Amino acid sequence: MAEDALSSTAVQNESRIEFPDNRLLAKLCGEYDRNLTTIETELFVQIIRRGNQLVLIGDDESLASAVSILQSLYNRIEQGRDVLPVDVVTALRMNSAIVSDKRNAKQLTMFKDSNIEIKTRKKIIEPRTEAQSSYVKSLFNHELAFGIGPAGTGKTYLAVAVAVSMFISGRVDKIILSRPAVEAGERLGFLPGDLKEKVDPYMQPLYDALNDFLPAKQMAKLIEDKVIEIAPLAFMRGRTLANAFVVLDEAQNATTMQMKMFLTRLGEGSRMAVTGDRTQIDLPNGVRSGLVDAERLLAKVSKISFNYFTAKDVVRHPLVAEIIEAYDADKT
């Protein structure tokens, strides 16, 4: 990183942070110091690495934010957790929330509830934002939980992770993942292959999520034995789903009748997670979204949890959050 003095009309001050473990400091900095570069860019500070110290140059407010973020991330590494680029972006967003809402600063701590873990066969998953933490708690504690918000906020990913975790621990006997195959429409019959080959492309995001949590051979065996089912929403009709964790993805594309049909499949010992994005409804004009109606009709049912996400909870590429915010700002 360049060590030139930052050009700014604000008074530039210097702060030093000493880290006891160089190995952990290397993880904090990231490959080619990319984590430091992200913090420099977002906070308009300069960070220089000298041995086991980081020297920060910038105005007082930026320095305070940078020091807080770096210490929070280093503490995370000391606890044996990874620091990925998305964690740096999350810390920056949380810091921004703290700065903009100083009255609630005590409640807006970085990596709040970081002790929440979802154990799967391949890795341990943890929520990265407050909204994700609340959502994961709801998935474990409620029989029916809704996750509503834009793409990239981890709604489906976390729901599938919790489903796998509860299956591994024996709390459920089956996992059922479903989505409406709205994009297929009447063209579905003209696609080549049998029924499974026709609908699998629409189910692929669910396969991708599962693949992150289960070894390939085990996943294939469980699917073959129908312990894990991945099927279009229409296949749920007439079934009672007992002792299963059921996830309905892209629920905004379910009609009101389909949503009612799905929700009434809930059986003894089962859990349901319903995820969707109200801004991406692909239903024909004049057809009401079952997700919107469910939110309206069930909001006061105490045993049902509604969890909401915003662009601040996006855990994909940082640019995704900016794209979502730009589209939201354009609504009239």
Set down the secondary structure blueprint.
Elements: E1 13-18, H1 22-29, H2 34-43, E2 46-50, E3 53-58, H3 60-78, H4 85-100, E4 118-119, E5 124-125, H5 130-141, E6 144-148, H6 155-168, E7 174-179, H7 195-213, H8 216-224, E8 228-232, E9 244-248, H9 256-263, E10 271-276, H10 290-298, E11 304-308, H11 318-329
Helix pairs in contact: 1-3, 2-4, 3-4, 5-6, 6-7, 9-10
Describe what this molecule looks like in 3D.
41% of the residues lie in helices and 16% in strands. The chain is an alpha/beta fold and 332 residues long. Strands 8-7-9-10-6-11 form a six-stranded parallel sheet, sandwiched between helices.
| Amount of helix | 40-55%
Structure classification: alpha/beta
Q: Average pLDDT across residues?
A: 83
Query: What is the terminal separation in angstroms?
Result: 43 Å
The percent range for strand residues is 15-25%
Detail the poorly predicted runs: 1-9, 103-108, 184-188
Please provide the ordered H/E string of secondary-structure elements: EHHEEHHEEHEHEHHEEHEHEH
What is the approximate shape?
A: elongated
Largest sheet: 6 strands, parallel
Rg estimate, integer Å: 23 Å
Quickly count the helices. Answer: 11
The total of beta strands comes to 11
- What is the spatial order of strands in the main beta sheet? 8-7-9-10-6-11
